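Usage

Read records sequentially. Each one opens with the input sequence:
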Amino acid sequence: MIDITNIVLVVCVALGFALGILSGLTPGLHLNNFAAMLLALSPSLINLGLTPYEIASIILAASISQTFFDAIPAIFLGAPDSETALTVLPGQKLMLEGRGIEAIRLSALGSAGSIIFALLLVAPLSWVVSNYYDYLTKYVGVLLFAVVLMMIKSERGPVIDGQGSLVHWKYKTILTSTGRARLCTGSTRPSLVCSF
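and closes with the structure output:
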């Protein structure tokens, strides 16, 4: 005999994939819109017999399918979401060379690789978090600070003689702390080589 909960779960996953395809192919329509609607409708959906697990499976399936389809409008229409903004220039360059399908294929391979990598990390990270959660929460600030230091150390920004490779951070810090940029003498735009 077929269990009805498995059929409902399959229907929820299929609905999630359809929502992900729709949000991926429609510029300006993001998965968060559907997630907010599902959150707003969740009491009604629970009254209809859906479990929170099945509602979450809709959102998860939609997020996975969107990662595959959001590159299509970014490359062919030049209308990326915030997540796919970096794919516009290389993708459109390939499209203008007549290799747009190749750009989509490369994006799909990258999405598939990231999903496989994430699935490989589920078990070890679940074990680490479940066994060391209390210990990690005590030192989360130190861990985040170490990540920030590694990111700064790996920064390969423009190198300006006498000021180093992190000079653009100097400009950003001054800009955010004063609320405005200082202009160099004789210049009409903020410059990274100004002495602040």
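Summary fields computed downstream for this record:
- The helical segments are 4-25, 31-47, 52-69, 71-76, 88-96, 100-138, 140-153, 167-178.
- The chain has eight helices and no strands.
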